[in-house]
């Protein structure tokens, strides 16, 4: 099975409500998608969100990386030589992790189709079903409480609440949500780099003192501030999850080695795809550090790829794969079943996405 062509397009999927964090506000999923065709007629799909505020990637940079560097490097290579293709993919251009992830997932999609098996089984087949949280955007407290209660009514048992924009007011924000949803719902907080180390210690200690029972805190400080994050990790009882600080296997080793965080958040758009994510999984398994699988603002296509990785690996103990639930519509056919808080894998080969509708050429 030889790579014959790579086509680049765009998709547009409106969100049910605006997505708000300490870093940005987004109203629609507007992502780059690709279609890789082989000489046997098989097709593999990939997706990349242009998340410049985190990865540095824009639509233009993703398209340029795929069109001008990745495509010439791998067209003509055989899917059966997956490791060789991946080495070429990751060496033909530096950084551009979202573009690499887009191509990577399409290649793994084809790899599964080549051998007639769902990808999660080829990668390890640890489980068939996942439970995901649902993100509660940062808004006025009464609105966040209302969104949290609605999420619980929909069946979600884990909430990931965005904080980091108003300092100590986040304590009252989480206290109000905890009172509204009761003690049995897990609450994760995600500051998206919005606090200083001193603020994080103060806020998380106050949450602990008030018995708010926070499962974890994600990326409390700036991505580069590993010393600050280590201070937070050593000063509070709440587990600290490194997100924007971890792009590569080398980043994971440094964070684990220095004790900068308790947990690692894997996102395909940071790791350059499944190939890089598997390396982080191997490191985490060696050190006994649990991982969470997350996503950017991605549609069902990219989130399905992440779900396959999560279903394959036991070291991934938590899932933040709510992208499809945040979208107003599901324009895709196939893939895992996203049933509110439950993600159920099936036996479709590869990633399982069978069609990408309105495959419009990028930039047209």
UniProtKB/TrEMBL annotation:
Mandelate racemase/muconate lactonizing enzyme C-terminal domain residues: 141-239
Note on how the cofactor is bound: Binds 1 Mg(2+) ion per subunit.
Alphabetical UniProt keywords: Isomerase, Magnesium, Metal-binding
Top-rank taxon, per record: Bacteria
Gene3D superfamilies: Enolase-like C-terminal domain, Enolase-like, N-terminal domain
Requisite cofactors: Mg(2+)
A Pfam family recorded for this sequence: MR_MLE_N
EC code(s) of this entry: 5.1.1.-
InterPro entries: Dipeptide_epimerase, Enolase-like_C_sf, Enolase-like_N, Enolase_C-like, Mandel_Rmase/mucon_lact_enz_CS, Mandelate_racemase_C, Mandelate_racemase_N_dom
Homology family: Belongs to the mandelate racemase/muconate lactonizing enzyme family.
Protein known as: Dipeptide epimerase
Organism from which the protein derives: Caproiciproducens faecalis
């Amino acid at each position: 099975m030889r790579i014959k062509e790579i086509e680049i397009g765009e998709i547009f999927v409106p969100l049910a409500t605006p997505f708000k964090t300490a870093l940005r506000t987004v109203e629609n999923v507007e992502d780059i998608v690709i279609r890789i065709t082989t000489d046997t007629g098989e097709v593999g799909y990939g997706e990349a969100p242009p998340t410049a505020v985190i990865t540095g990637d824009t639509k233009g940079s993703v398209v340029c990386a795929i069109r001008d560097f990745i495509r010439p490097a791998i067209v003509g290579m055989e899917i059966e030589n997956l490791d060789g293709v991946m080495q070429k993919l990751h060496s033909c251009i530096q950084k551009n992790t979202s573009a690499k992830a887009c191509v990577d997932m399409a290649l793994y999609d084809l790899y599964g189709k080549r051998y007639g098996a769902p990808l999660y089984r080829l990668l390890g087949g640890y489980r068939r079903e996942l439970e995901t949280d649902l993100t509660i955007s940062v808004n006025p407290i009464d609105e966040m409480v209302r969104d949290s209660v609605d999420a619980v009514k929909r069946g979600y048992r884990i909430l990931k609440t965005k904080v980091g924009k108003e300092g100590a007011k986040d304590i009252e924000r989480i206290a109000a949500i905890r009172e509204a949803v009761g003690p049995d719902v897990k609450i994760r907080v995600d500051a998206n780099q919005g606090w200083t180390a001193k603020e994080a210690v103060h806020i998380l200690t106050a949450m602990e003192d008030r018995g708010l029972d926070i499962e974890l805190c994600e990326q409390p400080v700036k991505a580069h501030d590993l010393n600050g994050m280590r201070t937070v990790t050593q000063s509070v009882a709440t587990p600290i999850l490194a997100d924007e600080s971890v792009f590569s296997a080398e980043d994971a080793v440094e964070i684990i080695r220095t004790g900068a965080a308790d947990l690692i958040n894997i996102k395909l758009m940071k790791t350059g795809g499944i190939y890089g994510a598997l390396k982080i999984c191997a490191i985490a398994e060696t050190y006994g550090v649990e991982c969470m699988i997350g996503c950017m603002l991605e549609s069902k296509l990219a989130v399905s790829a992440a779900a396959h990785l999560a279903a394959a690996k036991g070291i991934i103990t938590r899932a933040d794969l709510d992208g499809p639930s945040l979208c107003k519509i599901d324009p895709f056919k196939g893939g895992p079943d996203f049933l509110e808080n439950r993600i159920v894998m099936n036996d479709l080969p590869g990633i399982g996405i069978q069609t990408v509708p309105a495959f419009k050429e990028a930039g047209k």
